[in-house]
Design goal:
With 126 residues, this protein is α+β, with helices and mostly antiparallel strands. The protein has four helices and seven strands, in the order H-H-E-E-E-E-E-E-H-H-E. It has a seven-stranded mixed sheet with strand order 4-3-2-1-5-6-7, sandwiched between helices. Strand 2 and strand 3 form a beta hairpin.
């Protein structure tokens, strides 16, 4: 998982460029953000998101927290670039990025089959 996070972070500039170009057929730009509360930490998806003018970002939390009690699904959140641990978007039926999800799919063939049965596929390239 650490390698997936490192890959996502090392390609983040390219993701932001793709998002700013709004390529035809590309949609659903999202980032996974590490939130901390006391000794608890949790990675959660945020979409839509945008720069907040202060060097960070803001967006809507699209995950249901399990450990961070001060957050809830749909809440407006702010975060910094160094909190981003993954990113993704759709290009047609292909989900691009999602490096941490690709790790989970490699470990769980039943999950991968369910996703593919819905007509989606992940572009899980190194």
């Amino acid at each position: 998982m650490n390698a997936a996070i490192a890959k996502a972070r090392s390609t983040l500039d390219g993701f932001f460029k793709t998002k700013s170009r709004r390529e035809p057929g590309a949609d659903g730009y999202t980032v996974k953000v590490l939130f901390r509360e006391g000794s608890n930490a949790e990675h959660m998806w945020v979409t839509p998101f945008r720069p907040n003018g202060g060097g960070g970002y803001q967006g809507l939390l699209k995950s249901s927290p399990s450990y961070i009690k001060g957050l809830q699904w749909g809440q407006q959140v702010t975060f910094e670039r160094d909190q981003i641990t993954d990113w993704g978007y759709t290009q047609g039926n292909t989900l691009v990025g999602y490096f941490t999800v690709c790790v989970l799919l490699a470990r769980d063939s039943a999950l991968k089959a369910r996703i593919e049965a819905n007509g989606q596929r992940y572009q899980c390239a190194a």
